Amino acid sequence: MKKVKVYFNRWFSVAYHYMNAIRNNEDGIPFDIYATHSDPQHMALQASDIAEVEPRISGVEYARFCADFCRRHGIDVFIPRWNMLDISKHLYLFDDIGTKVMVCQDTELLEQLMEKDLFYESIRQKNIVTIPDYAIASNAEQFKQAYESLIALGHKVCFKPCNAEGGMGFRIINNERNPLEELFGHALNHVSFEEAHRVLSSTESFPNLMVMELLEGYEYSIDCLADRNGKLLAAVPRRKAGGRLRLLEQHPELLEVAQKVAEAYHIPYNYNIQVKYNGEHAKLLEINPRMSGGLHVSCLSGINFPYLAVKSALGHEICSLHPQYDILASHIEQPITIRKSVH
User: Fold this and answer.
1) Distance between CA 23 and CA 10 in Å, rounded?
2) pLDDT at 87 over 70
Protein backbone atom coordinates (compact mmCIF):
# COMPACT_ATOMS: atom_id res chain seq x y z
CA MET A 1 0.00 0.00 0.00
CA LYS A 2 1.35 3.43 -1.00
CA LYS A 3 2.22 5.59 1.98
CA VAL A 4 0.25 8.81 2.52
CA LYS A 5 2.50 11.82 3.00
CA VAL A 6 1.48 14.33 5.69
CA TYR A 7 3.30 17.61 6.36
CA PHE A 8 3.31 19.70 9.58
CA ASN A 9 4.88 23.16 9.37
CA ARG A 10 6.05 25.11 12.43
CA TRP A 11 3.98 23.45 15.18
CA PHE A 12 4.03 23.25 18.97
CA SER A 13 6.00 20.47 20.67
CA VAL A 14 2.79 18.45 21.14
CA ALA A 15 2.75 17.81 17.39
CA TYR A 16 5.04 14.92 18.41
CA HIS A 17 1.91 13.19 19.77
CA TYR A 18 -0.27 14.11 16.77
CA MET A 19 2.25 12.66 14.30
CA ASN A 20 2.30 9.39 16.23
CA ALA A 21 -1.50 9.34 16.45
CA ILE A 22 -1.71 9.58 12.65
CA ARG A 23 1.00 6.96 12.20
CA ASN A 24 -0.65 4.53 14.68
CA ASN A 25 -4.11 4.80 13.15
CA GLU A 26 -6.84 2.21 13.60
CA ASP A 27 -7.16 1.51 9.85
CA GLY A 28 -3.54 0.45 9.45
CA ILE A 29 -2.94 3.02 6.70
CA PRO A 30 0.83 3.68 6.32
CA PHE A 31 2.03 7.28 6.58
CA ASP A 32 5.24 9.20 6.07
CA ILE A 33 5.32 12.30 8.28
CA TYR A 34 7.18 15.40 7.12
CA ALA A 35 7.88 18.47 9.25
CA THR A 36 9.62 21.83 9.11
CA HIS A 37 10.56 24.26 11.86
CA SER A 38 12.91 27.21 12.22
CA ASP A 39 14.57 25.43 15.18
CA PRO A 40 16.43 22.33 13.93
CA GLN A 41 16.17 20.64 17.33
CA HIS A 42 12.53 21.46 18.05
CA MET A 43 10.50 18.63 19.56
CA ALA A 44 7.87 18.90 16.82
CA LEU A 45 10.43 17.49 14.37
CA GLN A 46 11.37 14.44 16.40
CA ALA A 47 8.43 12.18 15.47
CA SER A 48 8.66 12.99 11.76
CA ASP A 49 10.24 10.75 9.14
CA ILE A 50 11.62 13.67 7.13
CA ALA A 51 12.47 17.02 8.77
CA GLU A 52 13.87 20.24 7.36
CA VAL A 53 14.71 23.67 8.77
CA GLU A 54 12.43 26.37 7.41
CA PRO A 55 13.42 29.99 6.74
CA ARG A 56 12.30 32.85 8.99
CA ILE A 57 9.90 34.46 6.54
CA SER A 58 6.20 35.29 6.58
CA GLY A 59 3.25 36.30 4.43
CA VAL A 60 2.87 35.06 0.87
CA GLU A 61 6.59 34.29 0.75
CA TYR A 62 6.09 31.75 3.53
CA ALA A 63 3.03 30.28 1.80
CA ARG A 64 5.16 29.82 -1.32
CA PHE A 65 7.85 28.08 0.73
CA CYS A 66 5.26 25.63 2.12
CA ALA A 67 3.80 25.01 -1.34
CA ASP A 68 7.26 24.37 -2.75
CA PHE A 69 7.99 21.94 0.10
CA CYS A 70 4.75 20.11 -0.71
CA ARG A 71 5.64 20.01 -4.39
CA ARG A 72 9.19 18.72 -3.82
CA HIS A 73 8.03 15.94 -1.51
CA GLY A 74 4.69 15.03 -3.11
CA ILE A 75 2.72 15.88 0.05
CA ASP A 76 -0.85 14.58 0.15
CA VAL A 77 -2.09 16.49 3.24
CA PHE A 78 -0.64 19.67 4.76
CA ILE A 79 -1.53 20.53 8.40
CA PRO A 80 -0.50 24.16 8.99
CA ARG A 81 -0.28 26.09 12.22
CA TRP A 82 2.22 28.89 11.61
CA ASN A 83 0.92 31.59 9.22
CA MET A 84 -2.42 29.81 8.78
CA LEU A 85 -4.12 32.93 7.48
CA ASP A 86 -1.58 33.59 4.74
CA ILE A 87 -1.69 29.93 3.72
CA SER A 88 -5.51 30.00 3.60
CA LYS A 89 -5.42 33.13 1.43
CA HIS A 90 -3.13 31.38 -1.09
CA LEU A 91 -4.68 27.91 -1.30
CA TYR A 92 -4.43 28.03 -5.09
CA LEU A 93 -0.69 27.38 -4.66
CA PHE A 94 -1.57 24.00 -3.13
CA ASP A 95 -4.53 23.26 -5.40
CA ASP A 96 -2.17 23.47 -8.37
CA ILE A 97 -0.02 20.62 -6.98
CA GLY A 98 -2.84 18.48 -5.55
CA THR A 99 -2.06 18.92 -1.85
CA LYS A 100 -5.04 18.97 0.54
CA VAL A 101 -4.65 21.68 3.20
CA MET A 102 -6.31 21.18 6.60
CA VAL A 103 -7.23 24.81 7.20
CA CYS A 104 -10.38 26.89 7.38
CA GLN A 105 -10.90 28.20 3.85
CA ASP A 106 -13.21 31.01 4.98
CA THR A 107 -10.45 33.61 5.35
CA GLU A 108 -12.77 36.24 6.83
CA LEU A 109 -13.83 33.80 9.57
CA LEU A 110 -10.23 32.67 10.10
CA GLU A 111 -9.13 36.26 10.56
CA GLN A 112 -11.90 36.79 13.13
CA LEU A 113 -10.90 33.65 15.02
CA MET A 114 -7.31 34.86 15.24
CA GLU A 115 -8.30 38.35 16.47
CA LYS A 116 -10.32 37.68 19.61
CA ASP A 117 -12.16 40.99 19.71
CA LEU A 118 -13.45 40.53 16.15
CA PHE A 119 -14.74 37.06 16.95
CA TYR A 120 -16.36 38.15 20.21
CA GLU A 121 -18.51 40.60 18.29
CA SER A 122 -19.40 37.94 15.74
CA ILE A 123 -20.45 35.36 18.31
CA ARG A 124 -22.31 37.95 20.43
CA GLN A 125 -24.73 38.44 17.54
CA LYS A 126 -25.43 34.71 17.24
CA ASN A 127 -26.33 34.11 20.91
CA ILE A 128 -24.40 30.82 21.05
CA VAL A 129 -22.50 31.32 24.30
CA THR A 130 -22.06 34.27 26.66
CA ILE A 131 -18.93 36.35 26.22
CA PRO A 132 -17.13 38.06 29.10
CA ASP A 133 -17.43 41.80 29.72
CA TYR A 134 -14.45 43.38 28.00
CA ALA A 135 -13.00 46.46 26.34
CA ILE A 136 -10.17 46.99 23.85
CA ALA A 137 -7.21 49.22 24.70
CA SER A 138 -4.36 50.36 22.47
CA ASN A 139 -2.99 53.12 24.72
CA ALA A 140 -2.56 53.67 28.44
CA GLU A 141 -5.58 55.95 28.83
CA GLN A 142 -7.89 53.42 27.16
CA PHE A 143 -6.41 50.74 29.43
CA LYS A 144 -7.19 52.84 32.50
CA GLN A 145 -10.75 53.51 31.34
CA ALA A 146 -11.36 49.82 30.59
CA TYR A 147 -9.99 48.77 33.97
CA GLU A 148 -12.11 51.29 35.86
CA SER A 149 -15.30 50.40 33.99
CA LEU A 150 -14.86 46.68 34.71
CA ILE A 151 -14.10 47.35 38.39
CA ALA A 152 -17.28 49.45 38.55
CA LEU A 153 -19.23 46.40 37.34
CA GLY A 154 -17.86 44.42 40.28
CA HIS A 155 -15.35 42.36 38.27
CA LYS A 156 -11.82 41.34 38.94
CA VAL A 157 -9.79 42.21 35.83
CA CYS A 158 -7.28 40.51 33.53
CA PHE A 159 -5.87 41.33 30.11
CA LYS A 160 -4.35 39.60 27.11
CA PRO A 161 -3.19 40.58 23.58
CA CYS A 162 -6.01 40.17 21.08
CA ASN A 163 -3.98 37.93 18.77
CA ALA A 164 -1.96 35.89 21.30
CA GLU A 165 -1.95 32.08 21.44
CA GLY A 166 -2.41 30.10 24.64
CA GLY A 167 -1.37 31.97 27.77
CA MET A 168 1.04 34.33 26.02
CA GLY A 169 0.72 37.84 27.47
CA PHE A 170 -2.10 36.90 29.87
CA ARG A 171 -1.96 38.84 33.15
CA ILE A 172 -4.27 39.14 36.16
CA ILE A 173 -4.50 42.56 37.78
CA ASN A 174 -3.90 42.07 41.49
CA ASN A 175 -3.37 45.12 43.69
CA GLU A 176 -2.79 43.04 46.82
CA ARG A 177 0.39 41.27 45.76
CA ASN A 178 3.15 40.55 48.24
CA PRO A 179 6.43 40.87 46.28
CA LEU A 180 8.45 39.17 49.02
CA GLU A 181 6.17 36.12 49.05
CA GLU A 182 6.31 36.00 45.26
CA LEU A 183 10.10 36.19 45.31
CA PHE A 184 10.29 33.00 47.36
CA GLY A 185 7.28 31.27 45.79
CA HIS A 186 6.09 30.22 42.36
CA ALA A 187 6.24 32.72 39.50
CA LEU A 188 2.80 34.26 38.99
CA ASN A 189 1.15 36.00 36.07
CA HIS A 190 -0.11 38.76 38.40
CA VAL A 191 0.60 42.46 38.06
CA SER A 192 -0.80 45.49 39.86
CA PHE A 193 -2.79 48.08 37.94
CA GLU A 194 -0.14 50.68 38.78
CA GLU A 195 2.68 48.53 37.37
CA ALA A 196 0.78 47.65 34.20
CA HIS A 197 -0.31 51.24 33.62
CA ARG A 198 3.23 52.53 34.14
CA VAL A 199 4.67 50.11 31.59
CA LEU A 200 1.92 50.78 29.05
CA SER A 201 2.38 54.54 29.51
CA SER A 202 5.97 54.24 28.30
CA THR A 203 4.75 54.08 24.71
CA GLU A 204 2.23 56.15 22.77
CA SER A 205 0.34 53.06 21.57
CA PHE A 206 0.63 49.29 21.61
CA PRO A 207 -1.04 46.29 19.89
CA ASN A 208 -4.65 45.82 20.96
CA LEU A 209 -5.15 44.43 24.44
CA MET A 210 -8.38 42.78 25.50
CA VAL A 211 -9.10 44.01 29.04
CA MET A 212 -11.77 41.74 30.47
CA GLU A 213 -13.48 40.32 33.52
CA LEU A 214 -11.52 37.60 35.27
CA LEU A 215 -13.34 34.26 35.15
CA GLU A 216 -12.56 32.17 38.23
CA GLY A 217 -14.59 28.97 37.77
CA TYR A 218 -13.85 25.71 35.97
CA GLU A 219 -12.04 26.00 32.63
CA TYR A 220 -12.91 23.66 29.75
CA SER A 221 -11.39 23.01 26.36
CA ILE A 222 -13.90 21.42 23.98
CA ASP A 223 -11.93 19.51 21.36
CA CYS A 224 -13.98 19.24 18.19
CA LEU A 225 -13.67 17.07 15.08
CA ALA A 226 -15.54 18.06 11.94
CA ASP A 227 -15.49 16.79 8.38
CA ARG A 228 -14.07 18.83 5.51
CA ASN A 229 -17.42 20.65 5.18
CA GLY A 230 -17.58 21.60 8.87
CA LYS A 231 -20.15 19.02 10.01
CA LEU A 232 -19.44 18.15 13.65
CA LEU A 233 -18.45 14.51 14.11
CA ALA A 234 -17.34 14.45 17.75
CA ALA A 235 -16.74 16.80 20.68
CA VAL A 236 -14.96 16.09 23.97
CA PRO A 237 -15.09 18.65 26.82
CA ARG A 238 -11.81 18.49 28.74
CA ARG A 239 -11.72 20.17 32.17
CA LYS A 240 -8.72 21.29 34.16
CA ALA A 241 -9.08 19.25 37.35
CA GLY A 242 -6.11 20.51 39.36
CA GLY A 243 -2.40 20.30 38.63
CA ARG A 244 -1.82 18.05 35.65
CA LEU A 245 -5.18 16.32 35.98
CA ARG A 246 -7.69 16.57 33.16
CA LEU A 247 -11.24 15.19 33.17
CA LEU A 248 -12.94 14.20 29.91
CA GLU A 249 -16.51 15.03 30.80
CA GLN A 250 -19.88 14.40 29.15
CA HIS A 251 -21.18 17.92 29.72
CA PRO A 252 -24.56 18.48 27.97
CA GLU A 253 -24.37 22.30 28.05
CA LEU A 254 -20.90 22.36 26.46
CA LEU A 255 -21.73 19.67 23.92
CA GLU A 256 -24.65 21.87 22.87
CA VAL A 257 -22.27 24.85 22.56
CA ALA A 258 -20.04 22.75 20.29
CA GLN A 259 -22.99 21.81 18.10
CA LYS A 260 -24.17 25.42 17.82
CA VAL A 261 -20.66 26.64 16.94
CA ALA A 262 -20.43 23.98 14.22
CA GLU A 263 -23.81 24.92 12.75
CA ALA A 264 -22.98 28.64 12.79
CA TYR A 265 -19.41 28.61 11.48
CA HIS A 266 -18.72 25.26 9.73
CA ILE A 267 -15.08 25.16 10.87
CA PRO A 268 -13.50 22.05 9.27
CA TYR A 269 -11.25 19.35 10.72
CA ASN A 270 -9.85 19.93 14.24
CA TYR A 271 -10.65 22.97 16.35
CA ASN A 272 -10.97 23.86 20.00
CA ILE A 273 -13.50 25.91 21.96
CA GLN A 274 -12.27 27.30 25.28
CA VAL A 275 -14.79 28.39 27.91
CA LYS A 276 -14.55 29.23 31.58
CA TYR A 277 -17.20 29.53 34.22
CA ASN A 278 -17.98 32.53 36.37
CA GLY A 279 -20.40 31.16 38.93
CA GLU A 280 -22.91 29.05 37.02
CA HIS A 281 -22.39 30.78 33.69
CA ALA A 282 -20.04 29.46 31.00
CA LYS A 283 -18.34 32.27 29.10
CA LEU A 284 -16.28 32.01 25.93
CA LEU A 285 -12.54 32.53 26.08
CA GLU A 286 -11.64 31.76 22.46
CA ILE A 287 -11.96 29.35 19.55
CA ASN A 288 -8.74 28.01 18.06
CA PRO A 289 -9.10 26.83 14.43
CA ARG A 290 -6.46 24.11 14.86
CA MET A 291 -5.53 21.14 17.02
CA SER A 292 -5.26 22.25 20.65
CA GLY A 293 -2.25 21.85 22.90
CA GLY A 294 -4.06 19.18 24.93
CA LEU A 295 -5.70 17.26 22.09
CA HIS A 296 -3.60 14.16 22.77
CA VAL A 297 -5.35 13.90 26.15
CA SER A 298 -8.79 14.05 24.50
CA CYS A 299 -7.69 11.18 22.23
CA LEU A 300 -7.98 8.97 25.33
CA SER A 301 -11.74 9.18 24.66
CA GLY A 302 -11.18 6.69 21.84
CA ILE A 303 -11.40 9.35 19.13
CA ASN A 304 -8.19 9.67 17.09
CA PHE A 305 -8.73 13.36 16.33
CA PRO A 306 -5.60 13.99 14.20
CA TYR A 307 -5.94 10.87 12.06
CA LEU A 308 -9.69 11.18 11.46
CA ALA A 309 -9.23 14.78 10.31
CA VAL A 310 -6.60 13.64 7.81
CA LYS A 311 -8.90 10.82 6.71
CA SER A 312 -11.68 13.36 6.05
CA ALA A 313 -9.29 15.67 4.17
CA LEU A 314 -8.44 12.74 1.89
CA GLY A 315 -12.13 12.45 1.00
CA HIS A 316 -13.09 9.43 3.11
CA GLU A 317 -16.34 9.33 5.05
CA ILE A 318 -16.12 8.99 8.83
CA CYS A 319 -18.40 6.47 10.52
CA SER A 320 -20.49 7.36 13.56
CA LEU A 321 -18.26 8.20 16.53
CA HIS A 322 -18.96 7.58 20.22
CA PRO A 323 -16.42 9.17 22.58
CA GLN A 324 -15.85 7.69 26.01
CA TYR A 325 -16.30 10.22 28.80
CA ASP A 326 -15.67 10.35 32.55
CA ILE A 327 -11.96 9.68 32.04
CA LEU A 328 -9.51 11.26 34.48
CA ALA A 329 -6.13 11.69 32.78
CA SER A 330 -2.69 13.16 33.24
CA HIS A 331 0.74 13.00 31.60
CA ILE A 332 4.39 12.43 32.43
CA GLU A 333 7.59 13.38 30.63
CA GLN A 334 9.32 10.81 28.47
CA PRO A 335 13.00 11.18 27.56
CA ILE A 336 13.95 10.78 23.89
CA THR A 337 17.17 11.13 21.94
CA ILE A 338 17.24 14.17 19.67
CA ARG A 339 18.10 13.33 16.09
CA LYS A 340 21.46 14.83 15.20
CA SER A 341 21.01 16.09 11.66
CA VAL A 342 18.04 18.10 10.43
CA HIS A 343 18.77 20.05 7.25
Assistant:
1) 19
2) yes
Residues 156-182: tens digit of each pLDDT: 999 999 887 767 889 999 998 777 777
Q: Verify that 119 and 221 share a domain, yes or no.
A: yes
Beta strand segments in the chain, E: 4-8, 31-37, 50-53, 77-79, 100-101, 134-137, 157-161, 171-173, 190-191, 209-213, 219-226, 232-240, 246-248, 269-278, 281-288, 327-329
CA distance 112 to 99: 25
Domain of residue 220 covers: 109-129+216-329
Residue 202 Rama label (left phi>0; alpha psi -120 to 50; beta)? alpha
Return the closest-CA partner of residue 75 out of 268, 251, 313: 313
Sign of the CA dihedral with 329 first, then 334, 338, and 339 last: negative
Domain at 319, CATH number: 3.30.470.20
Question: Which pLDDT does position 169 carry in this prediction?
Answer: 86
Q: In what order do the strands lie in the sheet with 4-8?
A: 50-53, 31-37, 4-8, 77-79, 100-101
Enter the DSSP assignment of 300.
Answer: G
